[in-house]
Specification:
heterodimer, A: 73% helix, B: 39 residues, mainly alpha, 1 helix, rod-shaped
Chain lengths: 382, 39
């Protein structure tokens, strides 16, 4: 009788005793989970992601809960859509269905800004290799510079699943911090005269047929040049084709709403589930956050410098600020450019140009990841 | 790797830009004339 009472009480208190004896990292992670939930709920920073990630982190750091053990809820979600990269691809269908590439199609040269905005990926790749990370881990860390959560998750889950948690949290955190990170760099690299350059209004020149053929052509061209990235580009373009063809409105609506919402919830919970204290709290995590920050900064630097070059080449017709929008954080980066432009001239409307560059950045980030994977494949590393 | 990667990204997007320009030329926006409103 006494023995069963004792074992029963042990069962009730084992979680608490674990927390006080070996659960130091879990306590820290519970505080981090609280921080993520605070940012998501109170500050509205990427709430759709930070709330499920924060709650998943909270769940997995309660000792002996076994949620990430085989058969546990978070492990099932992880195996269902992250281990096999399905979740980020499903989200990409939704993103494709949401994005209007019209502004980019009006001026396709804006795509080059989307290439310049990926410079941080390659600088970070070199940095990670120099710091001694194995090639595949370095590639996964570098993709944080794409400023594109699903792409970062796709690459990390495939080539460095052990780093998935810090990489995905870093990617989404820095995406949310774009309005804070970018403006000082934009101001530092441009002159007052450059910031007030007014760009010619965009004339509507794209036919419906062009908009319809665009996703097919992009899929074919990028698929042929960088086939390793086809799942990423193929899904984003599938979503966009459904949007533009106009005959599958129900599928488009489901992709951008129900499917995207459900997958975002599962994805966030599963990522939170990978944030177990003993696995997450390592020096590597801090290094990944540091390199991710450098990546986003270098993206912005390269974009604005490229903007300055184009400004010179066109005789001052392009405002270099729009270069900062050449990253994938859509439409946040375009809004940052608009706000910065209007700080110096309230009548300067850069939004449409920046939106074109920003959608170019969306394609650019996927192309950069695809190119990098295809290069690695060519080198026999993957 | 950096040169090939960055160069490959620029090249791919430049080609995409050219193809998009070509698409716009082949399928130009035709101005609507004589719409129901005009009539």
């Amino acid at each position: 009788m006494f023995e069963s009472l004792q074992t029963g009480l042990y069962g009730l208190t084992s979680g608490v005793s674990y927390l006080f004896t070996q659960g130091g990292p879990n306590v820290i992670m519970l505080l981090i989970a609280a921080g993520l939930l605070y940012l998501g709920v109170k500050k509205q920073v990427e709430p759709l992601l930070l709330v499920p990630i924060g709650f998943g982190c909270l769940l997995v750091n309660i000792p002996l809960s076994d949620l990430m053990e085989p058969g546990g809820l978070l492990r099932i979600l992880y195996d269902m859509g992250i281990a096999n990269e399905v979740f980020p691809l499903l989200i990409f269908i939704g993103i494709g269905a949401m994005i209007d590439f019209g502004a980019l199609l009006e001026n396709p040269k804006m795509l080059l800004f989307g290439a310049a905005g990926q410079f941080g990926i390659f600088i970070t790749l070199m940095l990670a290799l120099a710091l001694g990370f194995p090639a595949l881990e370095a590639v996964s860390i570098a993709v944080i510079g794409a400023c594109d959560g699903p792409t970062a998750i796709y690459v990390a889950s495939q080539y460095a699943p052990q780093l998935l948690a810090p990489i995905s949290v870093a990617a989404y955190s820095y995406m949310a911090l774009v309005p804070i990170i970018q403006p000082p760099i934009m101001r530092a690299l441009t002159t007052p005269a450059e910031r007030v350059i007014k760009m010619a209004p965009i004339k509507r020149s794209v036919s419906t047929t062009t908009k319809l053929l665009f996703p097919i052509v992009v899929t074919l061209v990028t698929g042929l040049l960088a086939p390793k990235g086809l799942p990423l580009m193929g899904t984003i373009m599938l979503g966009n084709f459904m949007r533009e063809c106009g005959v599958v409105a129900r599928l488009t609506k489901a992709s951008e709403n129900e499917i995207a919402n459900i997958v975002t919830l599962f994805l966030g919970l599963a990522i939170g589930g990978t944030m177990e204290g003993h696995a997450f709290l390592k020096p590597t995590t801090l290094m990944i956050f540091g390199m991710g920050f450098i990546a986003i900064c270098m993206d912005t630097v390269a974009g604005v410098v490229f903007g300055k070059i184009v400004c010179k080449l066109t005789g001052g017709k392009v405002n270099p600020l729009i270069g900062a929008a050449g990253i994938s954080a859509f439409p946040m980066a375009a809004r940052v450019v608009q706000v910065q432009g209007q700080l110096y001239d309230k009548k300067n409307h850069l939004l449409m140009h920046a939106a074109g560059v920003n959608t170019g950045g969306q394609i650019g980030s996927v192309v950069a990841a695809a190119v990098m994977l295809s290069v690695l494949k060519g080198m026999g590393l993957i | 790797m950096m040169i090939v990667g960055m160069g490959g990204t620029f090249l791919t997007l430049w080609i995409l830009g050219l193809v998009m320009d070509l698409l716009k030329k082949v399928f130009p926006l035709v101005a609507k004339t004589g719409t129901a409103e005009n009539k």
